[in-house]
Amino acid sequence: MADPRPQVSVIMASRNAVGHLPLAIGAVLAQTLTDLELIIVDDASEDDSWAVIRAAAAIDPRIREQRRSHSGGPAI
């Protein structure tokens, strides 16, 4: 039986990174290995980062998004 989980999980922390998100997301999804998931955690951004993340997740099912209500830094 095939394992339904992706072979690789990439976790991306983001805070107020709207200018960098499209390139960063695109770089992960453009890898030659396509059996992956991209988990993006928005750390209570105050810019349009969350909208960019949600839009990307709506287009590609490999993207999973989470949003924190209070900033905690990348280690959280």
User: What distance separates the N and C termini?
Assistant: 35 Å
Computed CA radius of gyration, to the nearest angstrom: 13 Å
Multimerization state: single chain
Give the strand order, joined by hyphens, for the main sheet. 1-2-3
Order of helices and strands: EHEHE
Describe this entry's structure for a reader.
The chain is built from two helices and three strands; from the N terminus they run βαβαβ. β1, α1 and β2 (about 35-45) form a beta-alpha-beta unit. Strands 1-2-3 form a three-stranded parallel beta sheet, covered by helices on one side. It is globular, with a radius of gyration of 13 Å. It has about 80 residues and is α/β, with parallel strands linked by helices.
Summarize the structure.
Helix content is 26%, strand content 28%.
Key descriptive features of the protein:
76 residues, alpha/beta, three-stranded parallel β-sheet, 2 helices, 28% strand
Topology:
Blueprint lengths: L7 E7 L6 H9 L6 E8 L5 H11 L3 E6 L8
Parallel strand pairs: 1-2, 2-3
